[in-house]
Amino acid sequence: MKVTYKEVKSDILAKIIKGDWGPGDLIPNEVDLAATYGCARATVNRAMRELSDDGIIERRRKAGTRVRLAPLRQARFNIPIVRDEIEEKGASYRYSLASRSVEVAPDWLRTRIQLPEGGKVLHLVCMHYADGTPYEHEDRWINLTALPKAEDTDFTKCGPGEWLVSTVPFSEAEINLSAGLADQNLSDYLACSVGDPVFKIERSTWWEKDAVTYVRFSYRPGHRMTTRF
What we know:
Blueprint: H1 5-18, E1 26-27, H2 30-37, H3 41-53, E2 57-60, E3 64-67, H4 82-88, E4 93-104, H5 107-113, E5 120-130, E6 133-143, H6 160-167, E7 172-181, H7 184-190, E8 197-207, E9 210-219
Antiparallel strand pairs: 1-3, 2-3, 4-5, 5-6, 6-9, 7-8, 8-9
Helix pairs in contact: 1-3, 2-3
């Protein structure tokens, strides 16, 4: 059966996402890859060109092809980094991991981002502070089928958002903005009163039809969001 460039591209990408080839690692040359996949060199070349165009790898004459140190941060829009948001305001940034667990994806999450039944996710609850004041509550699930190395990653010092941006790109995203009321749990985290209005952002991202992550951000009363196009 003839191997297509899409199959070669998908397999190379899977190796990068799973950590077989990490940021900065040299990827085998096209001749060796063609022998590995049992296809023509032209097939590998097209797969590599697309991965380069997607910002996953860097190709340099005589220096070879390497996994990018920082994959592209956007496909259709930039994914903001809360550390940058806070520091751009001139405030001091602090991050805290509140809880971490590996769970079977709940039904609502499986339906939301199309996960297989029984699929496991890494559930992280985090807080971000500006000058010591609660700024953003982060409730995040990472699909361990698509990104298994997340399970062994230390998120005590670096938030999952920053890690994801530097680890895997995305090809599709969905964002929902809404207003809500703080329950007891959120009021404790955000230092506000139960029933206070809170601003919420929900974001889901996919890569090549595989869900990567779903996250819900909550902000205390008075939060203002500004976007530029």
